[in-house]
Specification:
mainly alpha; EC 2.3.2.27; zinc-finger; 5 helices; metal-binding; transmembrane; Herpes Virus-1; 2 domains
């Protein structure tokens, strides 16, 4: 009888162990499958968000495409008649890739001192605000201010600011 009890106890223990092991394996399988499902859905969601971000960024970049300098500011850049007797490190226009000749009308950019044909650099500056050779900015803060407030007809209207008053500051 003791053997029967021990045998029954061993059977119950073995059955409990097998049931627990199977339950644990099934739980691990379910958790693994669920995590794979979540990672796939989150990656596809992430891909959709990235795609939407890329499209939005492209649209913003198109809307905020850099504009060049206003004609008024371009005309402020110094120009002169090129003379081959005056030695210069730069002998060709980097825009049209043509050598400078005597009596060519050229412009010298203020910060970098690069020289370009007058017509070549004017076309460039209408759509860009940097040197085509070294990419340094051409306009200073004043030029940028003038460009932003210049009218389409070329006139520049300076904003009139009201006189500063300490009384308005005290009322705060």
């Amino acid at each position: 009888m003791e053997n029967d009890i021990l045998e029954a106890l061993l059977s119950v223990t073995l059955l409990a162990f097998a049931t627990t092991t199977c339950s644990l394996l099934i739980t691990c399988f379910i958790v693994h499958t669920y995590r794979r499902f979540l990672s796939n859905s989150s990656s596809s969601l992430s891909e959709r968000e990235n795609l939407r971000y890329d499209v939005d960024t492209m649209m913003v970049e198109e809307e905020e495409a850099p504009q060049g300098l206003h004609e008024f500011v371009i005309n402020l850049i110094p120009s002169f008649i090129y003379n081959t007797t005056t030695k210069s490190e730069q002998e060709t226009c980097s825009v049209c890739l043509t050598e400078f000749k005597d009596n060519d009308h050229v412009r010298t950019l203020p910060l970098c001192s690069h020289i370009f044909h007058h017509d070549c650099i004017d076309v460039w500056l209408r759509s860009n605000t940097n040197c085509p050779l070294c990419r340094s900015l051409i306009c200073c803060h004043l030029c940028c201010l003038l460009t932003s407030i210049a009218n389409k007809d070329g006139r520049v209207d300076f904003p009139v600011l009201p006189p500063y008053s300490f009384a308005s500051e005290r009322s705060l």
